[in-house]
Design a protein that fits this description.
Blueprint: H1 3-7, E1 12-14, H2 15-22, H3 26-35, H4 37-40, E2 45-48, E3 51-55, H5 56-62, H6 87-91, H7 95-106
Helix pairs in contact: 2-3
Length: 110
Amino acid sequence: MTAAELAAQPPVTTLAVTAKAFGVGQSTMRQWAASGHLERRGVTAFKVGAQWRVVTSSLLAALGIPQTAMAGPAPDPATITAFDTPAKEVDGPHTTARRRAAQRRNGPAA
């Protein structure tokens, strides 16, 4: 992944993009995020539901890429919601079916 491709990412990106940037697989990147390895490298990673998200500006800084192409300051991870990312990335393609199955078993969610 090139520096220009990374700089063109939205303010918050996925672990898949982060894995490509570091040149490792997605399962390795999930382990790094869960163990705090990314935080120790200066990369801000946090969970939104079951999915990990990475602050792009911290990723660029950790990789030594200038942030001149990025517009605006980095977002505060505490203020980011699931609505800031596309629904299919947050929920996955089969979540609706899983939710319906759970409602049939347990009744509607409160």
